[in-house]
Structure formats: C-alpha cells, structure tokens
Amino acid sequence: MTYPPPPGPGGSFSPDPVQPYQQPQGFVPDNPYAPQQPYGYDPNVPYGYGSPYAQPSFPLTPPNDGMAIASLVVSCVSVLGLCTWGIGAILGLVGAILGHVAQKRIRNTGASGGGMALAGIIVGWSVFVIGLIIAGVLIFAIIMSETAGDSTY
C-alpha cells in the first residue's frame, strides 16, 4: 500500500500524484481470443519444413551392443541344452565368453547393454558349472556300470 506524499512547505500536495493501480500509458492488452501460433512455430521457416535448429523430442540413447544380446541369447539356449549330453555346458561357456567380450566392448565404446552382458555371464557360467557336474555324474555312472559288470553275483 502506498501512502500519499507529505505536504509541501506551503501545505499543498504535488500537482500530479501517481495513481497506484493505473495502467501505464501506451499499453494495449492483447486480444485473448486471437488464434495462437503452434508451439515451435518459426515465421522465418517455410511452411512444411521444420526449423533446422530444432531439438529432437526424445533423448537419444546409445544402441545395444550386439555381442551382449548374443551372450544373453546363447546363455538362455544353453539352459535348454542341459537336457542334452553336454551341449548345454559348451553353450554356457560360449555365452559367458561372449558376455565378457561384450562388457569390454561396452566399456570402450560407451554402448548400452551392460545388463544383458552381465546376465549372459552369470547364466553362462552357472550353466557351465551345472553341465560339468552333470557330465561328471554321467562319467561316474558309466565307470561304475563297467566295473559292476565284472562281479560274480
């Protein structure tokens, strides 16, 4: 809130006091019902073409590393390969090695897919160990069946 100025030495106020809520001179309000220009409209660019300096409307992400995808796929297929006689262990080893190579490439190039490479490594090494255990049990069973055939029972 503004207070009026104190009276001058003669007891009179200044001749032209400023009103507190008066619009400034020369101000003309815009028509609120006038059509609006579309967002991003540049009158200097011909119709139908975007501005050459326009930013993309979505953030650009680096592409996934293909070797990381291959690592995850081969490692997942190796889980199914456990039902066979040793193909699962071999595929698990291949998937884990692909995952390690993919992680190195991702570190060097900055591509995305580190999570897929890590998942391929974990699944690949796990399947490889399980495949080795299964192969060991099968070899042990074969050896025991060979020696059991020599008994006199």
Topology at a glance:
Blueprint: H1 66-81, H2 87-109, H3 114-148
Helix pairs in contact: 1-2, 1-3, 2-3
What string, H for helix and E for strand, traces the elements in order? Answer: HHH
Q: Structural class of the secondary elements?
A: mainly alpha
Helix segment tally: 3
Instruction: Kindly state the number of beta strands.
Output: 0
Shape: rod-shaped
Intertermini distance? 116 Å
Give the helix proportion (percent range).
40-55%
Strand content: under 5%
Explained architecture:
The chain contains 3 helices and no strands. Helix 1 runs parallel beside helix 3 and helix 2 runs antiparallel to helix 3. The chain starts with 65 loop residues before the first helix and ends in a 5-residue tail after the last helix.
